[in-house]
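worker-3 :: picked Glycosyl hydrolase family 39
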Amino acid sequence: MNFFCKLACSVSFLLAAGAVWAGTAPLSSAADPAAWRLNLGETPGATARLERDAATGGLLIRAGFTGESAYVGAIHAPELPPGVTKLNFRVTADRELEAGLRLLDASGRNFQTERFKLASGRETTLPLKLDGTRWEGAWGGSTNASRPVPPIREIQLLLNRPAEPEVTVRLAGVELEAPFINARPFTGENFRLEAFGCTVTGNWRNGAAPVLELAISAPAEAAGEVVLTFPEMFRDQTARFAVEPGRTARHLWKAPLTLGGNPFNTYRIGAALRLTDGSCAERAVLLRGADSPDWERRLKSSEVTASILGTGTHFCFAPEPTGGYAAWYPYERLMDKIAAAGLKWVRDDYWMRRPDGTPGATPQQLARLRAAKARGLNTIAMLPTMADQTLDYFLENVRAFVTETRGLVDVYEIGNEPNNFGGWIQKYGGTWNAREKDNSTSRWLIEHAKYVNAAADLIRELKPDAVVISGGYVTSSILRFLKNGISPNLNGITDHPYSAMTPPELYAFGTPFDGRDGVKAGGPNLHFSEVVQAFLRTFREIGRPDLSLWYSEFGYTTYLYGGQREKGKYTFAAYTEEAQAVYLVRRYLYCFTRPEIKAALQYDFLDDFQGRQFDPEANFGLLRADYSPKPAYFALQNLATFFNGVRSDSRLDAQVKIEDQPLHRAGKRGQLLDWDEDGKALMNADNNIHARLFQTDGGLRLAVWDARPVGGEFSPRFAEVRIAGKAASAGKTVGLDLLSGKRFDVPSFPDGNDLILKLSIGSRPLAVTLF
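worker-3 :: tokens ->
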């Protein structure tokens, strides 16, 4: 059977799973005479002009020859999608002549085919095989290249001088051949947009080549345009149609589906009515592929099967709707928003005494725990530790609270940042990182550890299957806590890795700070991944490789910098809302790669203290103080849905290789921060693209992101990624902007058994689904 076949014919076989067909698709840009230019040859005497063939919609080349003229060429600069193996020129001449084809490759080298004889009045297909043509000649450019170097810069149809002085040649079209051209149908969403006295209606002619019938009605005083925007990875395609005052204009718009489109995608097309007075109304229009999943749907927490995504809450500080935490009072409303985002974990403080002074859970606490459980949320109950409480008093509280909540709480966390809260340093003395001058461990940490270990033993007694975690100190002092000796009933270690002033790949613990901390809490590059490795190494050293990691707080604050001076080394930088979203996603994508990380909770869900604009502590939320969502809310909602059930596997990572990631020297970043301002702890930018492959409940997904700081100065960068053994996914790859949810086809093609992806990567991380 011939591997390629025409879409116009009855296609009878599939390359893969009923979705993507081998065949041809038109090079749509070749139908426009304005997209071509003429080459009149090296010797004088030739004339030529280009016209549209009104009868067939093709291209007419009318050429005349006098003097010593030898040929005429028509040149087109196409943007060929990856994976195209052949171009077919369908030509008909009104008299006999010879024709040929020429191309110009990326290196500037010309390749020219043999000559083909055209019979008068008979359509002939001239083949231009990009991977196997027998070239009659080649010159210029990279002289070592035996075949064209992609991308192809120009294609040219050459008409040799015939016996008669004039000739007319019709180019009916240029067709692309590829092994993964789609022939499955698309179904469009009809729509009606009414605004400013205008009415815009769109009705689809569904099928493999869907066409939108557009009608634009406007009153006499209206003028402007209707803009359709088709989503693309590199640059969106737009089509503009005039709003004609006092009449109804009708247009046909063919969806610009590359190689027949992707049957696994649902294109979200923008339709905007824009009038000259500045008025604008817009909506989205869906065009669904035959095999597309429901890309628009987002999972609720109760539908998420497994996830590390979570958020911190402050319900405990809002028993009444007053004070700086008053916005937390309507806990059910906020839990509904948490559940709608698909987050799986919530964390709050649980004071273990009722208002009457008796130990145990309050009615409000129990109501909140039940509300969380009803919404599919897992609760981490943080049990505060106070230095002014005796150990017996503390354990009495723990016993009562755990007894009453053990069916509602998923994880018990003992203590929260005792270096900051609970009065431990004030009572026992010591340093913020628990390192004394002789490198011994501060007494406050040793005393606090007694409470942690005793509580872990008691909780295990009361609830044998309980998950008990603790830590929450400064990162380096957690390692001291581990080496000091921990209860065998402690399941996991908590850390609060706020990056403070840097992108999430960086973290101010590691080799340059060994002298400050007295322990090896990271590596030489001050990378967050090095700190994770330090934890795992310490787990092994103390004989507890079973310990898990729980990031019960981390985040990025979106306050406005009001010119205040920095106080101390850990002042939070003022991030934009866009940067907050990007950095949260990037931190989570890394956490997905470590199965030892059981949960990571962004701090916190809602801006505190009425969102005071110049206060860092008041602006960490996914929601603003008025309950409106920041971009980060939607970003985590996308993560929750599209990485539901995410599973990391080193074998998957071994399949991924970044083949190319060029970066213009103007875009390279160097030193970001001199942490101690003494030149000893320099935090340098990571200029690399990161790519990780994950198995999820929704299929195989590649996460890709640029690790540089967020910036808007330059356009997105390019990357080429190879995925071993996934050639069958060529033409079936769908990209997703993890912040906006925008979807687009990702150019992909097979290379042997491997899949090659061509990616445009800006500040926003992408997820690419391989079908």
